[in-house]
């Protein structure tokens, strides 16, 4: 059994699992966060709602073609020039937007837990709406170059960047913009939020939600764990780009790429289960919305006879 075959089977079956559970979980997130009034008024959960939408876009655009390729041997990206361009642009836009929203959620928790009232007032749902619009516009404009310069190579017959500048920019983007900058911001504001919590006697007085803080921290930890290896992979590729590699080494590098890609996809597929694990209120809201199990106070009649 070759390493290439093992890599293809991992890509296929992990793709099927992530597609089923990821899209289902993100869809439940969208339904719960949009239907519970308390969640709709909170900037962090608004970021979670928007993030779930873009995660579904990423999963569907990334995994459906992958499953078809490894199941039937037909890769649309190597056949259709338009799909090659469109898929790459959508992946870049949705991936960057999702990571930005995760970063914004921990920033918002820092604002909410601050002891300074003027800082807390910066956490407003109206501001979050404007920030989301700005992020989507920036990420969409950034993805335009990928739509323009990605195409099917006449030599390799695969979907790649045909622009040397873009090809040189992509490792820098994944190392610096997609990994170092968001991880640094998440780490900084995660520390500042933790410091706020330690210094605050009563979070309730500041309208801070401990369960929401826990949901955010776990989401940020997942993003950190899943995106850091991607930066390491691109650093390795840059260091070894001038080396002559034999077939055995190329197969091992491809296997490592598949494992890291599988780990990254976990970030896009697991937020619902992270929220379910970390918040009893979220679990209760899921039960109420999906199964109609609403907890009510029932007054039993007094049947005692005198």
Automatic annotation (TrEMBL):
**Intracellular or extracellular location(s):** Cell membrane
Which Gene Ontology biological process is one annotated for this entry? neuropeptide signaling pathway
Q: Which InterPro entries match?
A: GPCR_Rhodpsn_7TM
- State the source organism's domain of life: Eukaryota
Q: Keywords of this protein's UniProt record, alphabetized?
A: Cell membrane, G-protein coupled receptor, Membrane, Receptor, Transducer, Transmembrane, Transmembrane helix
* Protein's UniProt keywords contain Transmembrane helix: yes
Question: Where would you find the membrane-spanning parts of this chain?
Answer: 12-32, 53-74, 86-111, 131-150, 170-194, 215-235, 255-277
Q: What name does UniProt use for this protein?
A: G-protein coupled receptors family 1 profile domain-containing protein
Species of provenance: Adineta ricciae (Rotifer)
């Amino acid at each position: 059994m070759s390493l290439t075959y093992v890599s293809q089977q991992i890509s296929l079956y992990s793709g099927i699992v992530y597609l089923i559970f990821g899209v289902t979980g993100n869809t439940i997130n969208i339904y719960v966060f949009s239907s519970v009034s308390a969640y709709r008024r909170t900037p962090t959960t608004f970021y979670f709602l928007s993030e779930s939408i873009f995660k579904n876009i990423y999963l569907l655009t990334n995994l459906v073609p992958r499953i078809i390729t490894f199941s039937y041997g037909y890769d649309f990206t190597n056949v259709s020039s338009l799909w090659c361009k469109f898929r790459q642009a959508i992946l870049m836009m949705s991936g960057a937007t999702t990571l930005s929203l995760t970063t914004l959620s921990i920033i918002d928790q820092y604002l909410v837990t601050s002891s300074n009232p003027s800082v807390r007032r910066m956490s407003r749902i109206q501001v979050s709406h404007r920030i989301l619009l700005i992020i989507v516009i920036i990420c969409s404009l950034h993805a335009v170059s990928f739509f323009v310069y990605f195409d099917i190579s006449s030599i390799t017959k695969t979907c790649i960047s045909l622009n040397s500048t873009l090809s040189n920019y992509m490792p820098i983007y994944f190392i610096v913009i997609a990994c170092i900058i968001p991880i640094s911001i998440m780490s900084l504001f995660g520390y500042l939020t933790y410091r706020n919590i330690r210094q605050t006697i009563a979070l309730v007085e500041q309208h801070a939600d401990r369960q929401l803080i826990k949901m955010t921290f776990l989401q940020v930890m997942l993003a950190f764990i899943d995106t850091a290896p991607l930066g390491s992979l691109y650093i390795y590729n840059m260091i070894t780009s001038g080396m002559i590699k034999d077939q055995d080494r190329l197969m091992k590098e491809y296997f490592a790429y598949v494992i890291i890609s599988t780990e990254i996809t976990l970030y896009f597929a697991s937020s619902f289960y992270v929220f379910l694990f970390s918040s009893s209120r979220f679990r209760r809201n899921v039960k109420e919305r999906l199964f109609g199990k609403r907890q009510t106070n029932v007054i039993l009649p007094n049947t005692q006879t005198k």
